[in-house]
Design brief:
six-stranded parallel sheet, 10 strands, about 30% helix, binds 2'-O-acetyl adenosine-5-diphosphoribose
Length: about 240
């Protein structure tokens, strides 16, 4: 592709699916008979904190047993080799982009491997469980919760995301259903800015109509092939 310097990439659960991490909306998105939307909310945490902490403890433990796949590795290669601006905005709360070697990563929905102290606002790195109400390493309060953006809460660093979109020459969406806003709206923001848009997803997403181009198949096939295209010198 020619004339492209700055790229914004949005990733979702589909990019980690082939690493063995369940997507949200697979099999109805149920967890122990609860809809994920009923666990991932501040109201659920207030009502039944043990249920919510157990859910996230389980997921935090699980991601640490998984490894990046060829799609994460390809984006890390793009990050290393791309001279222009590049921002990988991920809705994922796993750390597989980073473990693949990517550095220009923004976690708009938080991270499993951080806790958030609601007493002092510290965000310590956290790999173990939270169910036993451990003390915050900064202030000692037993007020740690997952550092995850729940439904009804504001995603992180939206200003930075919109600033990157305004400078972008290409918007690419990978492995996301297009069901959860504001991320699902980025493709329309990109279109309004006149930026070409590309979807790489297993199947047409809910927003597939808005993309200039859509390629459908597993991320481990589509993403390395697209990265190869981006890094290949233009034919003369
Ligand atoms: P979803 O589970 O909604 O969608 C995953 C998408 O990935 C679907 O469109 C699948 O078709 C696609 N997919 C599955 N396997 C794939 C593969 N091997 N290769 C490529 N695509 C594949 O996940 P998200 O769109 O990430 O929010 O969900 C968005 C947000 O909703 C999440 O970040 C989470 C959730 O509730 C919070 O936790 C705040």
């Amino acid at each position: 592709m020619t004339g492209i310097r700055n790229i914004v990439i949005l990733t979702g659960a589909g990019i980690s699916a082939e690493s063995g991490i369940d997507t949200f909306r697979a099999e109805g998105g149920l967890w122990e008979d609860h809809r994920v939307e009923d666990v991932a909310t501040p109201e659920a945490f207030a009502r039944d904190p043990d249920l919510v902490l157990r859910f996230y403890d389980m997921r935090r433990a699980a991601i640490q047993t998984k490894a990046p796949n060829a799609a994460h590795l390809a984006l890390a290669r793009l990050d290393r080799e791309w001279d222009g601006d590049l921002l990988i905005v991920t809705q994922n709360v796993d750390d597989l982009h980073e473990r693949a070697g990517a550095t220009r990563v923004l976690h708009m929905h938080g991270e499993h491997l951080n806790a958030w102290c609601t007493a002092c606002d510290a965000r310590p790195r956290w790999t173990g469980p939270l169910i036993d109400r451990p003390a915050c390493p900064e202030c000692g309060a037993a007020a740690l919760r997952p550092d995850i953006v729940w439904f009804g809460e504001m995603p992180y660093r939206m200003d930075e995301i919109f600033a990157a979109l305004e400078e972008a020459d290409l918007f690419v969406s990978i492995g996301t259903s297009g069901a959860v806003y504001p991320a699902a709206g980025f493709v329309r923001n990109a279109r309004e800015l006149g930026i070409p848009t590309l979807e790489l997803n297993l199947e047409p997403s809910q927003g597939t109509y808005w993309f200039d181009e859509a390629r459908h198949g597993p991320a481990t096939g589509l993403v390395p092939a697209w990265v190869e295209e981006m890094l290949s010198p233009p034919r003369t």
